[in-house]
Specification:
6 strands; 97 residues; alpha+beta; 4-stranded antiparallel beta sheet; globular
Length: 97
């Protein structure tokens, strides 16, 4: 597998208040493509970042409608993965992927 294919399973890291609070528990949150699954994601994260993954939770956010300036707007959904790392390990997101 080339490195190009490894990075196809990660769209971007999610940096929110909730995800930064999870980083204290050795958890990292990534936005992933719709076709991603736990086994491929685990292999790719371990190869890219050289860490041990203990658990992966995948959450599928559905499409929703929102009212903005009196008009209905469709907000597209996405899939995110919460990755739990082995105790004592971490991923530095400030260096970039």
């Amino acid at each position: 597998m080339d490195k190009i294919h490894l990075y196809d399973k990660i769209v971007s890291p999610m940096v929110t208040e909730k995800s930064t609070n999870l980083s204290e528990q050795n958890k990292i949150v990534f936005k992933v493509p719709a076709g991603a699954n736990k086994t491929n994601l685990k292999k790719n994260i371990e190869k890219i970042f050289k860490v041990n993954v203990t658990k992966i939770n995948i959450i599928n956010k559905q499409n929703r409608t929102k009212i903005t300036r009196g008009k209905k707007v469709r907000v597209s959904g996405f899939k995110k993965a919460i990755i739990t790392l082995k105790k004592g390990q971490s991923i530095d997101l400030t260096t970039g992927i």
